[in-house]
Amino acid sequence: MLKDFEPKKHEDKQAIAVQLKELRARLLAQQQLLIKAKLPVIVLIEGWAAAGKGSLIKELISEIDPRFYQTVSPVITPESEERYPFLYQYNKALPENGKITFLDSGWMESVVQKFLKHEITKEEYHRRIRQVNEFERQLRDGGYLVLKIFLHIEKKEQFNRLQALAEAPETEWRVNGNDLWQHKEYKRFLQAYDEFMSKTNSTIKWHILDGSKRKLAVHDAMDLLVMKISHGLENGRFIGEPFEEKFPLIEMPALSEVDLSPTIDDEEYKKELKKLQTRLTELHNIIYRKKIPVILCYEGWDAAGKGGNIRRVAYPLDPRGFDVHPIASPLPHELNRHFLWRFWTRLPKTGHICIFDRTWYGRVMVERLEGFCGEHDWKRAYNEINEFERMLTDWGAVVLKFWIHIDQDTQLARFTERQNTPEKQWKITDEDWRNREKWDMYEVAVDEMLEKTSTRNAPWYIIESNDKKYARIKTLKIIVKALEKACDKHFKKMME
């Protein structure tokens, strides 16, 4: 791709100036149409150091309303964000429907630089390429308009520009060690950029522009953006077909087959609870030092005991090292983005524990059954969720998912108790009673969810919760065992 690029020989600046004026007017008009159509746009500008990425973005945004776009420079990553998964900062930057995000460099620059610096292994390099392809496909299938541009300049041109910047007092700060290193290793970077672009060109195409002709590059980028938006406005929001990859799955029983009779007596419960919570405190300190992130996901029937279960898990943890996220219906700014966005932005840092009280699985349960998303959306979500969780475990996270299970009679008894106990009435709502009437529909959806998303790297555990105390002990045992295994694995890896 990049090696075969042939720049245009001539640049008619007068004609370009006229055309640019027309393109700016079209883009300004399109921005209002984007808002009405609720189409989100991502413009990724990659390229060589000193190729003019910042200047190009400045020209693209010069005439549009600043209330409806943002510019992000992910390469300048705060140290705190280095403790999140590779794609965290790009998911965090996703625009709301009707808005535009301009990225001054992005996932290609990040991957290539880290690979050439030997900060990531070859295995991790190929893993990140796979993650980029999954990310871009999810964006496209979720209705995002994505434009990827690479600004290309030759080595001599880069040298001249870097020298000019370095020699001027007001711009010398713009030339850093990475820029000089890239110039010195121009051939290696050329090879790496070319390979990356070739491997990530299937879902969303790359567009290579001649950065040596500045006005022409602005014209061509503006033309591509206007065409991309025009196509989106004419054809409407793209809805991707369900896509299914073969993940290594764990066979799960149907909910109707689960024996809900297990119990534990009070004396044994107290003994086990103290022992397990003490061990969990110890493990929390270890995973903090070893920077192992932990994500605990709770789903289950209303009144199944999720809250009490979460409290027993959270009690022994250092409050500075964990968060509990109760997930309700998405807020407007969350609803206006990809459904996984609000979970990406709640992920823990390395060494921290994050507990989700309800999760991204709402997509294939309540959103599916209540009609909050289309059929293609929830059917596509199984694979998108598996990819998301694989990204988390590739990052090094321990991901455990609990379905807190009770039968209908137990739920009715607990609903009735809540209804008749003044201090517990806040726990029961009309929506709980309505959902109960749809038990059979929800059970079908949950069975399908367990069947399609209990992967080896992120398994589901069905927790029998007719006896809440038994459920708490079983959950704690699973967590303790998983954290011990993760700590042992980390130790063995350090010794290799």
Number of helices: 19
Q: Strand share of the residues?
A: 5-15%
- Give the neighbour order of strands across the main sheet: 2-3-1-4-5
**Secondary-structure element order, as H and E?**
HEHEHEHHEHHHEHHEHEHHEHHEHHHEH
CATH superfamily of the largest domain: P-loop containing nucleotide triphosphate hydrolases
DSSP summary, beta strand count: 10
Q: Based on helices, strands and strand pairing, what is the structural class?
A: alpha/beta
Count of the separate structural domains: 2
Multimeric status of the protein: single chain
The CATH architecture of the largest domain can be given as 3-Layer(aba) Sandwich
How helical, in percent, are the residues? 40-55%
Shape: elongated
The CATH class of the largest domain, by name, is Alpha Beta
As a whole number of angstroms, the C-alpha radius of gyration is: 26 Å
Q: Whole-number average pLDDT? A: 94
**CATH fold category name of the largest domain:** Rossmann fold
The N- and C-terminal alpha carbons lie at a distance of: 39 Å
Q: pLDDT below 50 for ≥5 consecutive residues: which ranges?
A: none
Largest sheet: 5 strands, parallel
Can you put this structure into words, describing what you see?
- With 496 residues, this protein is an alpha/beta fold.
- It folds into two domains: 13-235, P-loop containing nucleotide triphosphate hydrolases (Rossmann fold, 3-Layer(aba) Sandwich), CATH 3.40.50.300; 255-495, 3-Layer(aba) Sandwich (Rossmann fold), CATH 3.40.50.
- 52% of the residues lie in helices and 12% in strands.
- The protein contains 19 helices and ten strands.
- It has helices spanning 13-37, 53-61, 88-92, 107-116, 122-141, 155-167, 177-184, 186-199, 214-235, 266-290, 306-314, 332-335, 341-344, 366-369, 375-395, 408-420, 430-437, 439-453, 468-495, and strands at residues 41-47, 69-72, 100-104, 145-152, 206-210, 294-300, 322-326, 353-357, 398-405, 460-464.
- Strands 2-3-1-4-5 form a five-stranded parallel sheet, with helices on both faces.
- Strand 2 (69-72), helix 3 and strand 3 form a beta-alpha-beta unit.
- Helix 1 runs parallel beside helix 9, helix 4 (107-116) packs antiparallel against helix 5 (122-141) and helix 11 crosses helix 19.
- The longest helix is centred in the last third of the chain and has 28 residues, at 468-495.
- The protein is elongated.
- The mean pLDDT is 94.
